[in-house]
Amino acid sequence: MSDQFDFIIVGAGSAGCAMAYRLSEDPGNRVLVLEFGGTDVGPLIQMPAALSYPMNMPLYDWGYASEPEPHLGGRRLATPRGKVIGGSSSINGMVYVRGHACDFDTWEEMGASGWGYRHVLPYYKRQEHSHGGQEGWRGSEGPLHVQRGTKWNPLFDAFKTAGEQAGYGVTADYNGERQEGFGDMEMTVHRGRRWSAANAYLKPALKRGNLTLVKGALVRRVLIEDKRAVGVEFETGGEIREAKAAREVILSASSINSPKILMQSGIGPAAHLAEMGIDVVADRPGVGANLQDHLELYLQQACTQPITLYKHWNLLSKAMIGAQWLFLKQGLGASNQFESCAFIRSKAGVKYPDIQYHFLPFAVRYDGQAAAEGHGFQAHVGPMRSKSRGRIKLTSSDPKAKPSILFNYMSHDEDWEDFRTCIRLTREIFGQEAFAPYRGKEIQPGDNVQSNEDLNDFIREHVESAYHPCGTCRMGAKDDAMAVVDPECRVIGVDGLRVADSSIFPQITNGNLNAPSIMVGEKASDHILGKTPLPASNQEPWIHPDWETSQR
Ligand SMILES: Cc1cc2nc3c(=O)[nH]c(=O)nc-3n(C[C@H](O)[C@H](O)[C@H](O)COP(=O)(O)OP(=O)(O)OC[C@H]3O[C@@H](n4cnc5c(N)ncnc54)[C@H](O)[C@@H]3O)c2cc1C
User: Fold this and answer.
1) Is 419 domain-assigned?
2) For residue 156, what are the domain limits?
3) Helix (H) or strand (E) holding 272
4) Is 190 a catalytic residue?
């Protein structure tokens, strides 16, 4: 391998793969991707229904956890991050959500000029190949295939109908004009396989010849000369090596590892770097700050009919599903089983949804660690815009040391009120006529958990991360002291260096983060290549006409 490239991309995750594809479209560009993880071959990653396995496997996951969270009774929450080609898109739940139009307008208001909804919509269209989405609002020729489930289980429709019965609207495509309402959920699955960023972008681009991928390469730091990034230092096979970038180095190592690499390279809060014995190249106090996530609860209800996925929660059934998938890429193995969903507002006066639901015809933890004893169904529910903020710090100057991750989950009083509202609204939905043929007892929280105090106790003990950390290299105006990158993803204070991944989000989006992370990769590519951004859209998203006076 030559050690001279035009562009070096650190991390083959959601954003990194999209950039590898776009930057290598011009055969004149020599592009290197360095990825610490390895291959994604095998059913544990490729079979959608196996999603709970890779997120627990040291082979595919960095194995991070939060510090004891002070507002959650000192619980440490798992913070899985993909360590494999495709990054977290290879170990995630495959749910596909762009986010709400207002999220991006908020980004723009926060200083990310050029990232309003009208600017990002054309990039969403460019990335997508939508099957079944709303015409005119969705992409049809992009590398990223997005589809809906077969809705094989009647509970999927029961959830949607229950929402309608409770007085909420229905949306035909929450990734189209209207996010708000109950509807079918979308997934990055194509022809029965997980459609990760590696399958969609990286593998086709690797056929081009001007793109080099090195797996098993741990990037230790960015090489900086006279405040200009000139390459990276990485370790592979026990050897420390260097690669040089004639044009730019781009970090896309995730919201945990991008700030970590910046700090290891001397870019970050000066006092913290000094504490770690690292020479300061650029004092950027925002590096590692502004950490955000979504929390969720699994609200579980027993099912009186033996129709849920519980009947397949045994070795024989799993083997049969696996065999059907292996030979035909069909059947239950070909879905993530999140096939219906909702985005609703918690109260009148909230302009756009601030609560998301994933519905599952099974009562089980997301990570597959514990299933209820019998048939049940559940909603994953949580608020979308918590004001709690955390931070990432180094624990050592050793690039192999795990960082310290503190989310400060539930540190705002509103977080508690919001979660209690989530529980009460969910009980109302599960109490509708549509669930009458199926509804058994409430498994969790349980009928006895009603008072604010009891609900708070339940929330403290049971709330889990939805695995959406972001915001730790926040994008903003160049003169914003806490911004890390400018609106063209350039690291402020160092030339030739960009960050483009979920770490640059100024604020978390309304939904799961794979789609917006890929969008960041798509849009950043145009900035890196010096292209004129795609023309802004003039499509206006749907906002509930009575949002000021009505909750639904
Ligand atoms: C278990 C789980 C479930 C999720 N479920 C969903 C879901 O259903 N839908 C959804 O939209 N989102 C989901 N998410 C979130 C979503 O997948 C991520 O937010 C998104 O993939 C982040 O993209 P990224 O480009 O920022 O980073 P990543 O995709 O994490 O990519 C970072 C890459 O950089 C590599 N890397 C890091 N450090 C180094 C280093 N020092 N040297 C070399 N390589 C390095 C990593 O190995 C990784 O491949 C989930 C996430 C997880 C973990």
Assistant:
1) yes
2) 150-184+295-383+411-462
3) helix 270-275
4) no
Binding residues for FAD: 6-35, 84, 92-95, 219
**How far apart are alpha carbons 312 and 398 in whole angstroms?**
45
As to burial, measured by CB atoms within 10 angstroms (0-12 exposed, 13-18 middle, 19+ buried), residue 400 is exposed
- Residue nearest atom 27 in ligand 1 by C-alpha distance: 254
- Does 252 contact ligand 1 (Cβ within 6 A)? yes
Task: Give me the amino acid identity at 497.
Answer: L
Q: What is the Cα–Cα distance from 185 to 192, expressed in whole angstroms?
A: 16
Q: List the structure tokens of 366.
A: 């997301």
448, part of any domain: yes
Helices (H) and strands (E) in the chain, counts: 13, 25
Instruction: Give domain status of residue 429, yes or no.
Output: yes
Taking the alpha carbons at both ends of the chain, their separation in whole angstroms is: 59
Indicate if ligand 1 lies below 6 Å from the C-beta of 515: yes
Cα 375 to averaged position of ligand 1 atoms, centre (Å):
32
* pLDDT averaged per 10 residues, the chain (length 552): 90 98 98 98 96 95 98 98 98 98 98 98 98 97 97 97 98 98 98 98 97 98 98 97 98 98 98 98 98 97 95 92 94 96 98 98 81 90 98 97 98 97 98 98 96 98 97 98 98 98 98 98 98 98 98 98
* Residues of the binding site: 6-35, 84, 92-95, 219
pLDDT, position 106: 98
Question: Is 275 among the domain residues?
Answer: no
The answer to whether 532 and 115 are in contact (CB under 8 A) is: no
| Nearest by Cα to 384 from 525, 174, 533, 210 | 174
**Is the distance from the beta carbon of residue 361 to the nearest atom of ligand 1 less than 6 Å?**
no
**At a CB cut-off of 8 Å and minimum separation 6, what does 173 contact?**
132, 133, 134, 137, 138, 183
- Give the whole-angstrom CA distance, residue 213 versus residue 108: 34
Cα 263 to Cα 354: distance, rounded to the nearest angstrom: 33
- What letter would DSSP give residue 183? E
Total count of domains within the chain: 1
Using the structure block, give the residue that is written with the tokens 């590898």: 20
Give me the CATH number covering residue 374: 3.30.410.40
Q: Is the distance from the beta carbon of residue 91 to the nearest atom of ligand 1 less than 6 Å? A: yes
Give the helix/strand (H/E) hosting 255: helix 254-264
Q: What's the pTM?
A: 0.98
CA–CA separation, 424 and 428 (whole Å) = 6
Peptide linkage before 445 cis (omega within 30 of 0): yes
